[in-house]
Amino acid sequence: MSSLAGILAEHAGREGPLLPILHDVQKMFGHVSEDAMREIAQTLNLTRAEVYGVVSFYHDFRTEAEARPVLKLCRAEACKARGVEALVQVAEGQSRVKVEPIYCLGLCSVGPAALVGDTVHARLDSTRLTTLLASL
Amino acid sequence: MKIRISDDALAIACGADTVAQAFMRAGAEVERVSSWGMHWLEPLVDVEGVGYAIVTADQVETILAGEAESIGPIAEHPFLTRQSRLTFARAGKTRSTSLDDYYSSDGWRGLATARTMGAEATIETVLASGLRGRGGAGFPAGIKWKTVASAQADTKYIVCNADEGDSATFADRMVMEGDPFMLIEGMAIAALAVGAQKGYVYIRSEYPHAIAKMETAIAASAHLVAPFVVEVRVGAGAYVCGEETSLLNSLEGKRGEVRAKPPLPALEGLFGKPTVVNNVLTLAAIPWILTHGGEAYAAYGMGRSKGTMPVQLAGNIKYGGLFEVGFGITLGELVNDIGGGTDSGRAVRCVQVGGPLGAYIPPSRFDLPFDYEAFAAADALIGHAGITVFDDTVDMAQMARFAMEFCAVESCGKCTPCRLGSTRGVETLDQIIAGKNVEANLALLADLSETMKFGSLCALGGFTPYPVMSAITHFPEDFR
Ligand SMILES: Cc1cc2nc3c(=O)[nH]c(=O)nc-3n(C[C@H](O)[C@H](O)[C@H](O)COP(=O)(O)O)c2cc1C
Ligand code: SF4
Ligand code: FES
C-alpha cells in the first residue's frame, strides 16, 4: 500500500470507509490534499463537497502540509489544574516546533501531558518541555 | 526473580519503557502488565509483589540488589485495600494481551454462562444487576438491551463508545490497555443477548496505545467470539463524537453531527439498524455480572445507583489514579481521605466532577454522596466519574471562560444557542475579566446560559452552563 489508489483499494467494500481512508491518507501524506479529496469522492460516490465537509469537521485532519514537527499540548481542565497554562509561554517562545492544543490524553493524574506522534509525555514542567521541544 | 512493570500509556509517559529496558539490560526477567492505577507511583516496579515507586533507570542495580527502599507489598497498599475492584480485578496483575493470563483469571466465564443460559436470561441478569450506563446518562443497560433484542431486523450492531473525551477520565483507556479481552467478552455477551452480528469499538485518536492493544486483542480472540466480529474504528479529534448519535454518524463516515431523537439508536442506530451503544465501562462490567450474578453486583452501591464505579482521581491531587468503589462514597472521602488533597500542598478550592460539562463543587458540598440522583439534585453531574481537583490558585473566571471556549471549539454546529451562544459567552466573560460592565455582563451570561440550557439538542450546549454558572455561584469573588 504505497499510494492513494492502494489505500482506496484496501478499504473497498468496508462499511463506512471514509474516516479510515482519511486517517490512512493523512498518515501517508501528512495531510489530505484537494486532489486526494477529489479522488476519494469519486471512488466512494460522494461529492467533493461532502468529503470536504467531513475533513473540515474533524480537528485531526489537515488540508495543508505541516513541515514542522508537531507537539500537542493538553490544555484541558485537569492539566490546567496541574499548571499547563504556565508552560504555554515556553511553547510560544520558540517556533521550530508547531505546538497545538489537544483536549485530554487520559493522563490527567500526571499532567501536564503532551503527545508527539504516538509518543506520550507526562509530568511536564518548563525544563522538561524545553528539552522535549529541542529534541524534536 | 520476576519484575513486573506496566506498559499502559500513563506508565510509559512516566518513563516505564526506559526502566523496563534497564532491567532487561541488567539481565532481569521483565513482564509488562496492566497498571494498578496508583498513578502517582508510576513507574511502579513490582518485584515479586513488592513495590518500588517512581523508579528511574539508575535505580535498577540497587533494586536488584535488594538495597532500595520499597513501598512494601503492592496488593496491601491502602489505596487498593479500600477499593471494591470488580471491573479492575485484574489491574496490575495480568499481561493485557495474554490469553493465558485472561483464561487463568476467570476470563471468558461470563460468556460461557451467557451461552448456557441464553439471551433472555442474560438480559434478566443484567436487569437484576441494576447496571446503569457509565458513559454519563446513567440509563439502565438491561432496558436498552431489551429494546434492541425485541427489534426485528436482519442486522444489529454493538457499538462500544470509547471516545472518552472528558478531562479527568481514563478508566476506559485503562480497560482497553489493561484488560481488552474483558471488553471484548462484554461486547460478545451483549451481541448474544440482543442478536447482533457485528461490533465496533470507536476509540478516540488521542489513545494510540489503546487502539494498538484493542487491535491485538481482537485478533487474538476472534475465534473465541465468532461468529460475532469486532472491529476498531478511530475517531478524529472531535469531542462531540462521544455523543452516541454523533458517534454513529462518524462511524458511517459522516460529519459528527448530533441526530435528533427519536428515533432511538436502539431501534434505528448504525446504518439505520438496531444498535446497542454502550460505554466501555458498561460493557466491561458485564463479564463479572454474568460470572457472579446480577444480585451480587447489585449488592454494591446505594439507592438506584447499583454496583461499583471506577472513579478517576485527577488534576491537582496528591494520590491520583483509579479508585473503583461502590456508589455512595462521599466526594470528601474521595478527594481528601483517599486522594490526600492537593498535590501542590495548598488548600483545595474546588473540584469539577463529570468532565467539561460538569459543575464546579466547593469543599462545603463535599458531603455529597456519589449517587446519580444526589448529584442531579445538587445541579451536578457524575458523568464518567472523573474528578478534577483544583487548589486555591485557580482563577474560576478563567475556568468559566474555558468551558465556553471548549463548547465553541467542539460544537457540532447544529443548534444556534450552542454554536453562537458559546462564542458570545467567551466574549462576555472576556469583558467581565477585563472589569467592563461586570453586573450587566453577568446578567447577560445568566440569560445566555438559560438559552443554551433549553435550546440545545444535546448536552454539549445544554450542560456547558453548569460549569459556568456554578463557578459564578460558588466563587463570585473571582468575577467582580
Ligand atoms: C457531548 C457529549 C459527549 C459524550 N461523550 C461520551 C463519551 O466520550 N463516552 C461515552 O461513553 N459516552 C459519552 N456520552 C454519552 C453518550 O451519548 C451515551 O449516553 C453513552 O454512550 C451511552 O452508553 P451507556 O449507556 O453505556 O453510558 C456523551 C454525551 C454527550 C452529550
Ligand atoms: S448542543 Fe451543540 S453539540 Fe449538541 S447538537 Fe446542538 S450544536 Fe451540536
Ligand atoms: S486533562 Fe490533560 S491529559 Fe486529561
From TrEMBL, chain A:
Keywords: 2Fe-2S, Iron, Iron-sulfur, Metal-binding. Pfam families: 2Fe-2S_thioredx (PF01257). InterPro entries: NADP_DH_HndA-like, NuoE_N, Thioredoxin-like_sf. One of its GO terms (molecular function) is metal ion binding. Its cofactor is [2Fe-2S] cluster. It catalyses: a quinone + NADH + 5 H(+)(in) = a quinol + NAD(+) + 4 H(+)(out). PANTHER family: NADH-QUINONE OXIDOREDUCTASE, E SUBUNIT, POTENTIAL NAD-REDUCING HYDROGENASE SUBUNIT. Belongs to the complex I 24 kDa subunit family. This is NADH-quinone oxidoreductase subunit E. It comes from Sphingorhabdus profundilacus. The lineage of its organism: Bacteria, Pseudomonadati, Pseudomonadota, Alphaproteobacteria, Sphingomonadales.
From TrEMBL, chain B:
Coiled coil: none annotated. GO terms for molecular function: 4 iron, 4 sulfur cluster binding; FMN binding; metal ion binding; NADH dehydrogenase (ubiquinone) activity. It comes from the Bacteria. Keywords: 4Fe-4S, Iron, Iron-sulfur, Metal-binding. SUPFAM superfamilies: Nqo1 FMN-binding domain-like (SSF142019), Nqo1 middle domain-like (SSF142984), Nqo1C-terminal domain-like (SSF140490). Its cofactor is FMN. It holds the Pfam family NADH_4Fe-4S. Residues 397-442 form the NADH-ubiquinone oxidoreductase 51kDa subunit iron-sulphur binding domain. InterPro entries: NADH-UbQ_OxRdtase_51kDa_CS, Nuo51_FMN-bd, Nuo51_FMN-bd_sf, Nuop51_4Fe4S-bd, Nuop51_4Fe4S-bd_sf. Belongs to the complex I 51 kDa subunit family. This is Formate dehydrogenase. It comes from Sphingorhabdus profundilacus.
